[in-house]
Amino acid sequence: MVKEILQLESTNANDFKNEIVKDITQALKGYATNMLNPDNETLLTREETAKLLSVSLVTLWDWTKKDIIPAYRIGNKVRYKKSEVLKSLNQKNQFGQL
């Protein structure tokens, strides 16, 4: 691990904090816009959805059973719309309100 030194001049702590908050806000807005694009209409398998959410298949099944995340049965296969999975997470997000 290489140690680097960062030296800031001609700024105070409050201005520096405001710049960081502004940049993070812009990045999050870009991320939110990206989540709502038409590519999110793709159907995901159970494994892909569990990987996207970083949860086990058992947890995904439990959330599906509790109607937290909507699922579609196509024949004997279960599929999830990516946009609906992401929307479900946004609705359950307690930290989305600033």
UniProtKB/TrEMBL annotation:
InterPro entries attached to this UniProt entry: DNA-bd_dom_put_sf, HTH_17, SinI_DNA-bd
Protein name per Swiss-Prot or TrEMBL: Helix-turn-helix domain-containing protein
A Pfam family annotated for this UniProt entry: HTH_17
Lineage per the UniProt record: Bacteria, Pseudomonadati, Bacteroidota, Flavobacteriia, Flavobacteriales
SUPFAM superfamilies to which the protein is assigned, alphabetical: Putative DNA-binding domain
Residue stretches making up the Helix-turn-helix domain: 43-92
